[in-house]
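Pipeline run #58 for the internal structure catalog. This entry was flagged by the ingest filter as a single-chain record with no existing model, so it goes straight to prediction. Upstream metadata was stripped on purpose; only the residue string is passed forward. Reviewer on rotation: M.T. Logging verbosity set to normal.
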Amino acid sequence: MPKADCPQCSGTGWKVVARPERGSAEGRAPVFALPCDCTSDDRSARSLERARIPQRYFHCDFESFETDNEYSPAAEAVVWNRSLTQAKLIVEAFARDYPVGIEHGLLLMGPCGSGKTHLAVAALRQIVLRGHQGIVYDYRELLKEIQASYNPENNLTEMGVLEPVLEAELLLLDDVGASKPSAWVLETVGHILNTRYNEKRVTLITTNFLDAETAPAFGSPRSSPARPLPVEDTLTDRIGRRIRSRLYEMCRTIEIVAPDYRKEIRQAGRFGASGS
């Protein structure tokens, strides 16, 4: 909302600007109205709201992302902190340079609570606030919305759900692989990713599932907090070989080796979250 006591717009939200170098024949400079500076916070809030950033992650930015694990044994913390720092540097550089030289998106892989969503939202947030168009969808919720569109009593069509997903300049698809990989799921997700790939649109993806060749580095899911997955499936198991192959072309893979931050701080008697 504009400020009622703003000296530039007097509370209207618009300021009048003259262009002397293009004066009219009568010698008077033409004027035009621009949004007043006092409304910038409101415009930023609307941009973030249009991006569908969940309330839980609305605070996420690079400054608030923690790379120091203070709750774990020193030897493990060194490895985890290095991984978190490296991931932050890569994602922050992506957001800073976007869209110049950006041909691929990012695939952030790691255990629950390691900060993947925090970093992805921080990147999207920074890019959106610079005037680009971005949008966030939770993988499971998106699939539910598409399924709900098949109900004849629902006014929203499948294309109505898919259009913003397919056409968004920047899409953040969070928690990929969380739903069981039925034939319909694989076909739907494949259509989304293939369409965005063919149209050269950038996609950010987070997932709790790893590749088979990198999973051992995270330890056994039964014995190590560094990979507390609910099942021992790989990402390929959850999204299929064809879609995983497409992601190699679409995204740079970032593997985050770190424990569940939320679990660690709960055990330490603190509250808050760094994101999934």
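catalog note: The chain has two domains: 1-50, 51-267.
catalog note: The chain is about 40% helix and 15% strand.
status: ready for reviewer M.T.
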